[in-house]
Amino acid sequence: MSERRPPPNPPGASRGDPAPGTLTSLLDEVFRGTPDRLPGSWAEDLVPGAALGRYDLIREVGRGGFGVVWEARDREIGRRVAVKVVRVDRSPAPGRRQLAEAEVAARLSHPNVVTLLDVGRNDRGAWIVQEFLVGRTLAERMAAGAFPLPEALHVAVGMARGLAHAHTHGVVHRDLTPRNVFLCEDGQVKLLDLGIAQAFGLRPPGGGTPDYMAPEQATGAPEDERVDVYSLGVIICRMVTGRDPFAGARPGERGAAPRLEAEGAPGLGDLVERMLAPDPRDRPRDGGAVLDELAAMERALPAALAGSGSGTGSRLGTTGTGRVRVRRRWPRWALVLALLGALAAAAVAGALASRRWLAPSIEPVVFSAESSPGTCEWGRATWVDLDRPPAGAVLRNGEMGGQGVAEVAGRKAWLQSSDWNQLLLPLGAAQHGDPFAVEAEFFMPPVTGWMRGVHLGLFADPVGGTAQGDFRGGVSLSLTESPGQPPLVTWYAPDDHGSPTTKYALPRRDSVAGRWHVLRVEGSRSKGWFRAFLDGKPLLVARGTYDLSGSHVILGSGYGYQHPEEVAWSNLRTFAGGPDCR
């Protein structure tokens, strides 16, 4: 899929190798040819009436960096198709990961993803055959100005549905732009060129279109589905405002996203702001997460706004538009003053609470999204892909004990299925960082008969080797949930005997069961502070001095002593922060 989680392989294929499909065979043949045999100009030499295999070209309907698109007729079954004649030029041959992802993309079948029908080549070049679409690109529609809100939500939901399907199958677009979205006359929204152009060497893996490119693509940082989430956020903003949200600034130099206020969809501004977060950890996880929120907004549109219905991008009227305003942001100094005031108030409240019932060794300060701390420079992460047995792992009691790789909620992940399990992994970049950060994704199924929970421990080492299940030192955070009860966040630190002791507990309002979540802990050895986030939203801040000499992360499940757990973990990341991080 991405550099973090490769796409699923078909039966019989080895990991890391492209699936032996038609597209891979075509690409092998194309790139074995010499530049002289496959000149880039051949696509421009074609004329109406020419035949490419079983396809008779009728008329040219578009062109771009990928090549030239023709309307054509399939002689064998008499249907209209779109034939993309590919420019290869002297581009480098695709790598194994690109080929594997392109093969998966070629097999996608979804109403919001254009269908690949066939591929072919001759002595001069290659072509791809897709379903023929009638309508216009999103770029052509956007040239007419800002969208009415019902139309914008209809198009955005269609794009999110296509992305959700692609992301579930391990495919990341990486170049989602209005030119790669098609609005059909029958009202359907289709994503174009998922994984295909990259496979033909026409766009580097970290590439994209600058106006829609996520910041991490510009810096060469690891990518995942959230690059598509960012691009979709830019497109939504342009649809509803008619303007570039960043006024042409380069991806690595953009400031905060504009704040939108949409009549009839009050959550749209918050969603777009999160989608355009510079740090991918602050964005919705993938297309599915965005789809849930967009679809709810579309369903909740007042009847007056949805007056024209949810027809096609070309047919929707302009009545009942629902105005979208761009709010001017406060100056930075004003935000800083407000932040300091909120933190001071929270600190006073936390200190008073600690005097009443909290252990004196820790002074937690609960903080909300409005008082979250400033941004840190975290640098590159150390990654552990948990869709395979991780190298260097230490298992509880030295045994697998109900742990292993499995398919969990649409992705391969490390599944822990027993009444208590732990997986110890090297701390990586966080071991010597001050500050440090550790982040992992987890999935917890619905809570039915007993408490379920996940446990993230930092700076722990096994006592007496892998044969022992005891661990001393470090700090840890758990997130547990009981039937009919809200989740409970608990902060632990060892007591004088090395046993974990509850230092702070905080109930949460919303259940965490049934979806993938990101759990993150940040801290500083020298300053003795720690803070935790769930899906980018603050959980707590804690202060104290602990033994942080250990070298492992614990990913654990448990608490379901009468009903075995089925908790899954994915994508462990550890970071060492910059000295200016507070």
Outline of the structure:
21% of the residues lie in helices and 28% in strands. The chain has 582 residues and is α+β, with helices and mostly antiparallel strands.
User: Which second-level CATH architecture of the largest domain applies?
Assistant: Sandwich
Q: Please tally the β strands and state the result.
A: 27
Distance N to C terminus: 34 Å
Biggest β-sheet strands, sense, barrel = 8 strands, antiparallel
User: What proportion strand?
Assistant: 25-35%
Total number of helices: 10
Question: For the residues shown, what is the average pLDDT?
Answer: 74
Broad shape: globular
**Which radius of gyration do the C-alpha atoms yield?**
26 Å
Task: List the domain count as a whole number.
Answer: 3
Descriptive report:
- By secondary structure, the chain is an alpha+beta fold.
- It has three domains: 22-131, Phosphorylase Kinase, domain 1; 138-324, Transferase(Phosphotransferase), domain 1, CATH 1.10.510; 338-576, Jelly Rolls (Sandwich), CATH 2.60.120.
- The protein is 21% helix and 28% strand.
- It has ten helices and 27 strands.
- Strands 12, 14, 15, 17, 23, 24, 25 and 27 form an eight-stranded antiparallel sheet that branches. Strands 13, 16, 18, 19, 20, 21, 22 and 26 form an eight-stranded antiparallel sheet that branches. Strands 1-2-3-4-6-5 form a six-stranded antiparallel sheet, covered by helices on one side.
- A hairpin with a 2-residue loop joins strand 24 (529-534) and strand 25.
- Helix 1 (22-32) packs across helix 2, helix 4 packs antiparallel against helix 9 (287-300) and helix 7 packs across helix 8 (268-275).
- The radius of gyration is 26 Å and the shape is globular.
- The chain starts with 21 loop residues before the first helix and ends in a 6-residue tail after the last strand.
